[in-house]
């Protein structure tokens, strides 16, 4: 997540779409045809730079999340929505390009309170190690914005529970509701 210098090496794709909501997460659907124009045959999280209605000035770096049918969710971070003055239900102009400078792996460091908890819980640690990199990045990004010790403790306990195989909602997602888990 974060800022990026606009790349001119990859083509810019422009389209109009309605901002919808998935759980608590605002998104724009990138259909299979548009996604194929960004990167043909891509089936994993797709790193892109995005602007909504030309904002923010420096395109936002994020992963499109695959739906399994060739289309992708473009989740719109609060800072992108604030910069563009948009919200759920708005029809927006999307500018998006493949981010050929993307570096995989977590951007935010693992908080000490979470790493220590993982060390004490073998099942949760194994669950963490089994997560795909984009899911780890998503969790660490979420943890980075937690300020109070109470919020950290509450979210740490819930993360450990789902990583150890427990069924629950965590970060607007049902975890372990099926055989694939999370």
Textual characterization of the structure:
The protein has 182 residues and is an alpha+beta fold. Helices cover 32% and strands 30% of the residues. The strands form two sheets. Strands 1, 2, 3, 4, 5, 6, 7 and 8 form an eight-stranded antiparallel sheet that branches. The protein has a two-stranded antiparallel sheet with strand order 9-10. The chain is globular and about 50 Å long.
Oligomerization status of the protein chains: single chain
Gyration radius, to the nearest Å? 17 Å
Helicity level:
25-40%
User: What low-confidence regions span 5 or more consecutive residues with pLDDT below 50?
Assistant: 1-7
Compute the number of strand runs: 10
Brief rundown of the structure:
The protein has 182 residues and is α+β, with helices and mostly antiparallel strands. The protein is built from 6 helices and 10 strands, in the order ββββαβββαβααααββ.
Features:
182 residues, alpha+beta, eight-stranded antiparallel β-sheet, two-stranded antiparallel ribbon, 6 helices, 30% strand, globular, disordered N terminus
